[in-house]
Amino acid sequence: MSRVSQAQALENRRRAVAAASQLFRERGVNGISVADLMKSIGLTTGGFYKQFPSKEALVAEAAQAAFGDLDLLLASFDTAHGDHDTARGALVDFYLSAEHRDQPGTGCPTAGFAGDMARESTTGEVCETYAAGVEEFAAWMSTDAEDGLPMVATLVGAILLARATAGTELSEKILESTHKALTAPHRPDPES
């Protein structure tokens, strides 16, 4: 029986985390077994337990990696669009697109892990990682005048509903109507 080099072990761990990050967003944490995850990257289940103490530890690491990818995506929007307001608008366009709806495995971890987070206990490393990621996303979405949490909640709710109704006219309507509501110019408050 040959030993795996330290470099190969690190590469195996990186591959497991990357695969888990994608598969958990696609199928849910309970929708993918350790055996299926390891098979997807050509490794054995025994190799998993050499790398991770538990599936929960992998979930925390996979969520952290997914939010790291989101941070890179948000930074790329800032770079590509020059100013943050334009970048935020472009992100809304992307977020509420059929492309994002149809690719949950590479999509936003806020939406991708939401169902699992709602069903799991509200303590521990996974919850803390998820909450921190949501807060960072909301901070990026915020403006001088508005907290970003309502925008994130609206985006995530819309994409979850659009995914749940994919293949129907309602799915398209959810994306379109939410986009219209979020990008319409704000009307002055008649009470002001």
Structural write-up:
By secondary structure, this protein is mainly α. The protein is built from eleven helices and no strands. Helix 4 crosses helix 5 (84-95), helix 4 (55-81) runs parallel beside helix 9 and helix 10 packs antiparallel against helix 11 (169-183). The protein is globular. The model has no long low-confidence stretch (mean pLDDT 91). Residues 33-52 bind DNA. This is TetR family transcriptional regulator. Pfam families: TetR_N.
> What is the mean pLDDT?
91
What is the strand tally?
0
Instruction: Characterize the biggest β-sheet.
Output: none
Structural category:
mainly alpha
- Please give the alpha-carbon distance between the first and last residues: 76 Å
Oligomeric assembly: single chain
The ordered string of helix (H) and strand (E) elements is: HHHHHHHHHHH
**Looking at the structure, what is the overall shape?**
globular
| Strand-residue proportion | under 5%
Continuous helix count: 11
Q: Nearest-angstrom radius of gyration?
A: 19 Å
Segments where pLDDT lies below 50 for 5+ residues?
none
Give the helix level as a range of percent: over 70%
Task: Give the secondary structure arrangement, pairings included.
Layout: H1 6-27, H2 34-40, H3 45-51, H4 55-81, H5 84-95, H6 98-102, H7 109-112, H8 114-119, H9 125-141, H10 149-164, H11 169-183
Helix pairs in contact: 1-4, 4-5, 4-9, 9-10, 10-11
